[in-house]
Amino acid sequence: MPELFNIDFEPLGRRTQTRSGQTLLEAAQSAGVGLASVCGGVGTCEECRVRLASGRLTPPTLVEQAVMTPAELTAGFRLACQAEPLSDVKLDIPPESLTAAQRLQLDGEETLLDLKPAVRSSAAHGLAVDIGTTKLAAYLIDLETGLTLARAGAMNPQIAYGEDVISRIAFAGREEGGAKKLQSVLVDTLNNLLIGLCSESHISPDSVLDAVLVGNTAMHHLFAGLPVEQLGHAPFSPAVTGPLNIPARDLGLNLGPGSMAYLPPVIAGYVGADHIAMLLATGITSFTDSRSSQRLPANVGSRGKNIIALDIGTNTEIALVSDGKATCCSCASGPAFEGAHIHEGMRAAPGAIERARWLDGRIIWQTIAGQPPVGICGSGILDVVAALLDGGLVKPTGALKTGVEPGQTGGYVLVPASQTGVGRDLTVTRKDVHEIQLAKSAIRSGIEILLQEAGLTYADLDEFIVAGAFGTYLDLRSAVRTGMFPPLPLDKFRQIGNAAGVGARQMLLSLDKRQEAEQLAGRIGYIELTSRPAFTPLFMEHLSFKV
Fold first, then answer.
1. CA 513/CA 508 separation, integer angstroms
2. 523: buried, middle or exposed (CB in 10 Å: 19+, 13-18, 0-12)?
3. Does residue 291 surpass a pLDDT of 50?
4. What is the dihedral of CA 347, 353, 356, 359, to 10 degrees?
5. Smaller CB count within 10 Å for the chain: N or C?
């Protein structure tokens, strides 16, 4: 009879029992742990890496010995599709080895800090919200214990009036009552999220007595009812930069009686309170021993380190911390990473292609939830472009090579109709590649400007922190392959999820954290990229691919 072994998957906190002779990948699948496995478990894609924390596994296979260094094998890294348990084992699962839905489970670990909320009352609750240009993330917090009771997300309804902040600023100025419309649809959605969170937690919205909301400067101003016209043209000046504490009812939020909404300070026209929250959560601008989220990097705030931290979204904010000084900038990366403006683009939902690799003369792919493919999400299109580069199917200019783009489909056939869930070919077009070129060049150019201003090169970086929902999903190898990120060793990168949401929760639970955020806003430097002569040449340079 085969032996039975317990398998613990950390930090997911999932346990399953498996028989001897089954691989770790099979055990993960039976436990509902979404390990990435683009190749279907034959060991060719190298996606399902795990680390053995305790217990015994079968010896490394020839496949593993070919793709992993001796140091990695010594450190306990294995391919889940190749290794079988020989005893009870505990595994550490790197975030990059998980599918998108599973990575979200790692997002929003509890915040560890001394509780000092603005409201001290028994059975009091608070609401923390990250107002993204495309998506909203809301968290219901117990102010007595600091625990997150429930979390929920939604699309930002303002997207119906413009995909980016520029178009929404234009709508607010063009349409009579446009700004009020943008504010009211956002508040309505937040109130609906609040009802759902409270229902899930079996509490009354009247017990929610405090709120912290973060967002970029345009989202901040629209939510607070501040003018935004001046954000649409140079010098892109915010109406206010300091923190705001506004009665929730004045904003239309249906919180408890007497509740307040705290909006942290903003830095510049396109660097807002969400960036402050992200930096607060990482701790890289604080040279103290204050504790932050368990999932965030430890000790990254040590003096003498050079650290890039960026939050990728429709608008990407980037900070460089060097020798105790922080400088930031913002770049318009566009909605491509949300699946928008992509021919087969869609949000990260079941059936979306989220991973892809070039293997044996073709692109292999994996979908969310293993469903038949129906489209491509943001992380998927970045992977696909990297795969096209690996396959030699894309020119440095981004054009598909002759013969790759058949006229009848209008693009490279990623998945033939017989394998899709929509009954037609799923294709990748030249325009899709161009959208990625624009986004990746904007981000890379912002990074390079910050480094140039500090007299550094990417080789001087000690750490590269990637935040945001898309930053949680993306494959670092694809980001480097396309040139979006500099060619650093992968162990210098850290993917930390929605750090802006973590920072918002910290400020909800601690007045000290609010004070820290306000002090940070007063000392961080800001660079307006369009004012730098080097920006346009860098942007044009990084549009190109190295093939």
1. 8
2. exposed
3. no
4. -160
5. N
Separation of alpha carbons 354 and 232, rounded Å: 34
Strand order in the sheet with 362-367: 362-367, 352-359, 375-376
pTM: 0.79
DSSP letter at 366? E
Those residues whose C-beta lies under 8 Å from the C-beta of residue 126, and which sit 6 or more positions away, are 117, 119, 140, 141, 143, 208, 209, 210, 211, 212, 508, 509
Q: How is the chain split among helix, strand and coil, in percent rounded to 5?
A: 35, 25, 40
- What domains can be seen in the chain, in order of their start residue? 4-98 (3.10.20.30), 125-272 (3.30.420.480), 344-428 (no CATH)
pLDDT (tens digit per residue) in 436-472: 999 999 999 999 999 999 999 999 999 999 998 788 7
Closest CA to 538 of 399, 465, 443, 435: 443
Find the Cα–Cα–Cα–Cα dihedral 414, 419, 421, 427, rounded to 10°: 20
Task: Tell me the angle at which helices 178-201 and 217-224 cross, rounded to the nearest 10 degrees.
Answer: 90
CA distance 331 to 270: 8
Residue 502 exposure: Cα atoms within 13 Å on the Cβ side:
28
Query: Among 66-70, 78-82, 244-248, 414-418, whose mean pLDDT is lowest?
Result: 66-70
Angstrom distance (rounded) from CA 94 to CA 87 = 22
Distance CA 37, CA 40 (A): 5
pLDDT band at 428 (very low <50, low <70, confident <90, very high): very high
- 3-state secondary structure at position 285: coil
φ, ψ (nearest 5 deg) of residue 417: -55, -35
Structure confidence by residue, pLDDT tens digits, 257-280? 999 999 999 999 889 999 999 999
Q: CB–CB of 342/430 below 8 Å?
A: no
* CA separation for the pair 84, 22 (Å, rounded): 6
DSSP three-state, residue 80: coil
Q: Which residue has the tokens 């995909």?
A: 163
What's residue 410's pLDDT?
A: 64
| Distance in angstroms (rounded) separating the CA atoms of residues 326 and 300 | 13
Confidence at 303, pLDDT banded by 50, 70, 90 = low
**Confidence class of residue 35 from pLDDT cuts 50, 70 and 90?**
confident
Tokens of 226: 């501040």
Residues 61, 64: Cα–Cα separation, whole Å: 5
Identify the top-confidence range among 108-112, 296-300, 373-377, 538-542.
538-542
Say how far residue 417 (Cα) sits from the centre of its chain.
31
Kindly compute the dihedral angle of the four CA atoms of residues 419, 430, 44, 52, in this order, to the nearest 10 degrees.
-100
Nearest 5 degrees, angle CA 123-CA 129-CA 130? 155
- CB atoms near residue 436 (< 10 Å): 26
